[in-house]
Design a protein that fits this description.
The complex is a heterodimer of chains A (331) and B (318). With 331 residues, chain A is an all-alpha fold. Chain A contains 14 helices and 2 strands, in the order αααααααββααααααα. Chain B has a two-stranded antiparallel ribbon. In chain B, β1 (161-162) and β2 form a beta hairpin. The chains are: A mainly alpha (331), B mainly alpha (318).
């Protein structure tokens, strides 16, 4: 009998290893990222070069920073699709302040202040106004784009001074500043999620809001801060954007809201809330960057980008559902 | 405010009557701003613009009543427009191209429906994905080019007049009647409300939830297809960026019409009034010379205000 049981036990142990990997929310995305890197390297010998990888990381910095914050909102079982217009507005604030005062600190403060204000409006409407987050942020997506057109009158901001552009173009210890900011904020968010009260509350509120309320957690405050954080991070991202682009147009940031949500769910954070990690958002953003970069190297026209992005979102959410059915996890 | 809500209820004012009052007030204000507004020609001309949003809003009403949402309607409109235009440019006879376009619209809706029902996913995520997917397909297939060498008779759908009345108004009136009958006079309509009120309870009562949802999402696909044909005929061009952002107009109209975004309530009469109010507002803003940049802002704020007022009054009523 003991011989008969042994293989079963071994396969159960094998199951646990597979399971332990599958249970990690960002597992499929990480595996997918590895496969893609391999495939693109084989398909194009210019892909796996230090300069190309750095340019991917650079191009993903704005998206990654925004995705790290949107990730917190999604973990709370809400959503924010106003980040595209928000980035445009913040970039205009940073650009305008930079043109009038120069420097680095004042434009950054202006961008973060404008973003935080927009985030506070989102958060207040969702928590105090009891309006669903999708409606609030859809309305804000259009309202803020209207504000952009109003304040700029349709003109561009150009000729941003070099000292303001450091966050987008500079290097420190041989690593580009946007990449450092992205990695720094990623580490901060991992720490916050693991060790801060608010970070733990985010998971509790997203996992089961009713239970969180009964446990006495400040449900509304937790969600409010998540929306506010998106605003602040978008403000930081707008400085990276301004540095890299050197100018702001009225359509700056259009479509970023979709990319950010895509990065979060592709990375493995559950759209139902409560499951995921900052690593998921970072992985998702990198995946999008690698795919868009790979498509360009493979010569696929840029007009297909939206279709690829949409397909990826659907693929990601479908994989998430199937993975959970496989693991038998109801969360 | 609770006193106001109470008075409103005591006087037997339904939400539709309040909305009608808002619409009349809006027309009066617009007339004061521009005397040309209150002429039959202007009013009927307005209708040329709201039929497309109106058709989609009819389908969206039912979907929102079930507690769902479809963010992909604007992109689907672009996809159908491109399907009609480019299959015609590729040599398909125009009547067949139009049928093909409608089929694409229904297929896109079915795609949403299957994804939502088979994987038990929230419609919000699925249609956010297809918002990008359909838009990208429309851009990709059209290679960002436009088709506009349609034969003259194609103008019939979006530019024809029967006397002073725009042709598409008849299509809209028929669609309103059909959807109203479905929602308030059939078993299917009761299922729609049942799902929105309590999906779990509806399931245990034997409501075929998946089939109802599939029908709803492919149904709105058909309505989007019709709207796309009218739109393409009206602007006489098929392009990949048609209908960008239209989902905001559509959802705003439905919510303004009193449908709860949480599901369970909403009426076709309310939605029609919501569509009329938004069309009057848009047209009035144009006539009053308000820059088009303001319109996005006004519409965004209007959507938020409408949901806020809705849920506020609903809570007081309960």
């Amino acid at each position: 009998m003991s011989e008969a049981r042994a293989p079963a036990e071994r396969s159960a142990a094998g199951d646990t290893v597979v399971r332990r990997f599958l249970v990690r929310p960002e597992a499929p995305a990480l595996a997918f990222l590895a496969i893609l890197l391999l495939a693109f390297t084989l398909a194009n010998d210019r892909f796996l070069t230090a300069s190309n990888l750095e340019s991917i990381m650079d191009s993903v910095a704005v998206l990654g920073v925004v995705a790290l914050a949107v990730n917190q909102v999604v973990l709370c079982a809400a959503i924010d699709i106003s980040t595209g217009s928000m980035l445009g507005l913040c970039a205009i604030a940073t650009g305008a302040v930079s043109l009038s005062t120069g420097g680095l600190l004042l434009p950054l403060l202006a961008g973060v202040a404008v973003g935080t204000l927009a985030g506070v409006i989102n958060g207040a409407l969702v928590t105090l106004g009891r309006i669903p987050a999708i409606i609030v942020t859809l309305g804000m997506l259009y309202a803020l784009r209207g504000v952009i057109l109003l304040v700029t009158g349709g003109t561009w901001i150009t000729g941003v001074p070099e000292e303001t552009r450091v966050l987008g173009t500079g290097t420190l210890l041989g690593i580009s500043v946007p990449v450092l900011i992205l990695i720094g904020l990623f580490l901060v968010m991992e720490l916050v999620n693991r060790h801060s009260t608010w970070g733990r509350n985010v998971f509790a509120v997203g996992g089961n809001r009713q239970a969180a309320r009964f446990a006495g957690l400040p449900v509304d405050r937790t969600r409010f801060f998540a929306f506010m954080l998106v605003g602040a991070f978008v403000g930081i991202a707008s400085m990276i954007y301004l540095g890299r682009a050197g100018s702001v147009q009225t359509n700056t940031g259009v479509g970023l809201e979709l990319q950010a949500v895509a990065a979060v769910v592709i990375g493995g954070t559950s759209i139902a809330g409560g499951r995921g990690s900052a690593l998921a958002a970072l992985t998702g953003a990198l995946l999008i960057g690698v795919i868009l970069n790979g498509l360009i190297l493979l010569g696929v026209p840029g007009i297909w980008q939206d279709a690829v992005l949409g397909g990826l979102i659907l693929l990601a959410v479908a994989t998430d559902v199937l993975r959970r059915r496989l693991v038998g996890d109801k969360a | 405010m609770s006193a106001l809500a109470g008075t409103v209820r005591r006087l037997g004012f339904s939400r539709e009557i309040v909305l009608l009052g808002v619409l009349i007030a809006l027309v009066v204000v617009m007339t004061l701003l521009d005397p040309l507004f209150l002429t039959l020609t202007t009013l009927l001309n307005t209708s040329r613009f709201f039929v497309e949003v109106g058709l989609m809003a009819l389908g969206m009403t039912l979907i929102i009543i079930t507690g769902g949402i479809d963010l992909s309607v604007g992109s689907n409109l672009a996809l159908v427009s491109v399907a009609v235009g480019f299959s015609f440019a590729a040599g398909l006879p125009l009547p067949l191209a139009i049928v093909f376009g409608l089929a694409v619209g229904v297929a896109a809706g079915l795609f949403n429906g299957f994804f939502i029902t088979l994987l038990d996913l929230h419609p919000l995520v699925v249609t956010l994905g297809t918002l990008a997917l359909f838009q990208g397909l429309a851009y990709g297939v059209s290679k960002a080019q436009a088709v506009s060498d349609f034969p003259d008779w194609f103008a019939y759908f979006g530019q024809a007049y029967l006397g002073p009345i725009p042709g598409q108004l008849f299509i809209f009136v028929v669609a309103v009647a059909v959807v109203w009958v479905i929602l308030s006079r059939t078993r299917f309509g009761r299922y729609v409300y049942a799902i929105g009120n309590n999906e779990e309870a509806a399931r245990f009562s034997g409501v075929p939830i998946r089939r109802v949802k599939l029908a709803l999402y492919s149904g709105i696909g058909l309505l989007v297809g019709m709207a796309a044909v009218i739109y393409t005929s009206r602007v006489y061009t098929a392009r990949g960026d048609s209908g960008v952002g239209l989902e905001l107009d559509v959802i705003s109209a439905v919510v303004l019409g009193g449908a709860s975004i949480y599901g369970g309530s909403g009426t076709i009469g309310g939605t029609v009034l919501g569509v009329l109010i938004i069309a009057t507002l848009r047209n009035g803003l144009i006539l009053a010379g308000v820059p088009s940049t303001w319109q996005l802002f006004v519409l965004g704020v209007l959507l938020l205000a409408a949901v806020f007022v809705n849920e506020f009054f609903r809570k007081r009523e309960e």
